[in-house]
């Protein structure tokens, strides 16, 4: 069932022919490989057709281990664009191209390999498919299995978040949560496949055959003049070895005269293969743990590590790692300068190119960076560093003012973790301006800086250091309130809340409204409720309102966490929104109340359509 005259299945290290265990095509202690009969391929292909037909995996059927072409399971994978870089490439003095593998049916290059795996599974009469994966591999296998109505079992460790499995769930994948680690899930998938005659899909021998077609396409798209360098990220190392195989086969078949040097990239927190490359080792040792934002290459035990190492070495290339920050910066540059939104594991290739060009001469080189997966696969990675968007009332004046404040001149992301402490001790005004320039690439007018400084100092008064997330909220709240300052008719001067066991809290407030100072007092079920009731008491006979919604969000952990409050007040069906942020929930609530309440004045002055009001 393994080999025939079209291909042989061999042990990768010894080169000896192997016999599959049922439909499991992998060794117990090392990877296997499919070796195609290139003489037979040469006799099967029509070079004219090959040169003229548009790229698509199915066009390369004669190169694939598929007996009957009519069995081929295809969703039109492959044929992905090779796009010339118009910004990053010229800036580095290189002829740079992106192989946009995110444009495959499920959003990653895995579909090329899956098309072949599911075809083989079908040809061998598999009753089901088993795969151990949490990500793109599982999504791809379930998709192709669904198209053939073959059940697909996905084995995952128990603690995997469901959000990662959304694609799998919608393709009807049968998820099995394994009480144990990822390795336990992988072993169970293998044993279940062996016992029940399921086809074991994953980073195994047949997958490489589908994925090597990407290398064929790169050659064709460059008119059979391959690049000097091809840069691919490495998780298990399967895809990079597939590229090497594709280039080798095209070379042996005489379609190309030279082969690219292959550069392999891993994340610093998951760099098993890079470590072996750097220490000139011939084995790839598993890591104890991995830590990177690039989830598709967060692999502790790279199954095809040795193949990847050889692909890099034999091609005269090298391997390097990049930090999460470098990855996120490259991801943002790809989106904002080239119009390509890819996931972190894909952006790692561009991060590596940018990093390496500082010490290595790529001048004039023709380079292809593989962009392995779509940005939509992992929006959370972007949102982790995204700056909050500005909020304005539906008033064009307000928008113009924000526009003129230079708010939009900055970036939309900052490459810093939200939990990182920005200010350990009370900063000077200049320090704040410096931080804004550095992290937000922006500069604000003096009046904004004064107000930001004031708010930062309030955090220190409460005994709280200011994290990046806190600072973002301070910035945003300031921008909103300074824009409105002309309209501030109401301000809470002071408050006092008494709470004790078994009695309702008692709040007193002193507010300034229309130049007059008034006081209010009330009890409530909790301290915030008491304060709101006291405010209502102080404001009676003025603008009548009702608390329409009150939302609290605590984004960091610990007892000194900052509390974000969003409050909506309702007045005769008109709703005004206010926000506040403080380590103190009462203070945050008061801030939110102030801005919401002032919104009513804007409304009454500006006529029925402006202000932060909606019907
Ligand atoms: C699977 C995957 C990788 C890693 O590929 P390997 O074959 O495991 O080395 C990189 N990027 C994306 C988007 C992937 O889905």
Provide a brief overview of the structure.
This protein has 21 helices and 21 strands. The strands form 6 sheets. Strands 3-4-12-9-10-11 form a 6-stranded mixed β-sheet, sandwiched between helices. It is elongated.
Describe the structure.
- It contains 21 helices and 21 strands.
- The chain is of the alpha/beta class.
- The relative contact order is 0.07.
- Among the domains are: 209-374, Rossmann fold; 386-479, no CATH class; 485-605, 2-Layer Sandwich (Double Stranded RNA Binding Domain), CATH 3.30.160.
- Strand 5, helix 5 and strand 6 form a beta-alpha-beta unit.
- Mean pLDDT is 90; it is low at 606-615.
- A 6-stranded mixed beta sheet has the order 3-4-12-9-10-11, sandwiched between helices.
- Residues 108, 110, 136, 203, 233-240, 296-297, 343, 345-346, 372-373 line the site of pyridoxal-5'-phosphate (PLP).
- Pyridoxal-5'-phosphate is lined by residues 108, 110, 136, 203, 233-240, 296-297, 343, 345-346, 372-373.
């Amino acid at each position: 069932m393994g080999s025939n005259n079209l291909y042989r299945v061999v042990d990768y290290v010894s080169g000896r022919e192997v016999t599959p265990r049922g439909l499991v095509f992998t060794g117990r202690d090392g990877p296997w490989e499919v070796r195609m009969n290139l003489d037979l391929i040469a006799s099967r292909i029509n070079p004219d057709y090959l040169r003229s037909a548009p790229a698509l995996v199915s066009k390369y059927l004669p190169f694939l281990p598929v007996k009957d072409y009519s069995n081929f399971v295809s969703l039109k994978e492959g044929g992905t664009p090779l796009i010339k870089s118009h910004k990053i490439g010229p800036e580095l003095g290189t002829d740079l191209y992106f192989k946009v593998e995110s444009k495959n049916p499920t959003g990653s290059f895995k579909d090329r390999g899956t098309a072949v795996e599911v075809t083989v599974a079908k040809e061998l009469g598999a009753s089901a498919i088993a795969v151990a994966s949490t990500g793109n591999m599982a999504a791809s296998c379930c998709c192709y299995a669904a198209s053939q109505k073959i059940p697909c079992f996905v084995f995952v460790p128990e603690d995997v978040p469901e959000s990662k499995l959304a694609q799998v769930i919608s393709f009807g994948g049968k998820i099995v949560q394994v009480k144990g680690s990822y390795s336990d899930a992988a072993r169970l998938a293998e044993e279940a496949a062996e016992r029940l005659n399921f086809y074991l899909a994953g980073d195994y021998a047949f997958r490489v055959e589908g994925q090597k077609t990407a290398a064929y396409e790169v050659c064709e798209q460059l008119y059979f003049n391959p690049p000097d360098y091809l840069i691919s990220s490495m998780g298990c190392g399967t895809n990079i070895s597939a590229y090497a195989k594709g280039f080798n086969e095209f070379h042996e078949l005489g379609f190309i005269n030279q082969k690219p040097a292959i550069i392999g990239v891993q994340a610093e927190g998951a760099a098993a293969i890079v470590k072996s490359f750097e220490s000139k080792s011939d084995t790839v040792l598993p890591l104890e743990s991995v830590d990177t934002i690039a989830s598709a290459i967060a692999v502790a035990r790279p199954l095809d590590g040795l193949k990847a190492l050889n692909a890099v070495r034999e091609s005269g290339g090298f391997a390097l790692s990049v930090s999460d920050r470098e990855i996120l910066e490259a991801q943002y540059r790809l989106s904002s300068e080239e119009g390509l939104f890819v996931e972190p594991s894909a952006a790692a290739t561009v991060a590596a190119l940018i990093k390496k060009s500082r010490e290595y001469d790529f001048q004039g080189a023709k380079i292809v960076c593989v962009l392995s997966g779509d940005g939509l696969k992992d929006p959370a990675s972007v949102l982790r560093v995204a700056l909050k968007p500005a909020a304005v009332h539906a008033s064009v004046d307000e928008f113009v003012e924000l526009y003129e404040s230079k708010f939009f001149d900055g970036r939309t992301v900052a490459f810093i973790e939200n939990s990182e402490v920005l200010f350990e001790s009370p900063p000077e005004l200049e320090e704040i301006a410096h931080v804004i320039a550095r992290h937000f690439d922006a500069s604000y007018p003096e009046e904004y800086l004064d107000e930001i400084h004031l708010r930062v100092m309030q955090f220190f008064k409460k005994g709280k250091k200011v994290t990046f997330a806190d600072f973002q909220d301070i910035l945003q709240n300031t921008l909103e309130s300074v824009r409105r300052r002309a309209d501030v008719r109401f301000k809470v001067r002071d408050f006092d809340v008494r709470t004790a066991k078994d009695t309702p809290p008692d709040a007193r407030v002193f507010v300034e409204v229309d130049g007059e100072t008034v006081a209010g007092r009330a009890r409530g079920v909790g301290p915030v409720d008491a304060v709101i009731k006291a405010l209502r008491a102080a404001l009676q006979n003025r603008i009548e309102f009702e608390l329409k919604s009150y939302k609290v969000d605590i984004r960091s952990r610990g007892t000194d966490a900052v509390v974000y409050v969003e409050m909506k007040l309702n007045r005769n069906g008109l709703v005004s929104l206010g926000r506040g942020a403080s380590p103190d929930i009462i203070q945050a609530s008061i801030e939110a109340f102030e801005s919401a309440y002032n919104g009513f004045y804007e409304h009454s002055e500006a006529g029925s359509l402006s202000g932060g009001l909606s019907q």
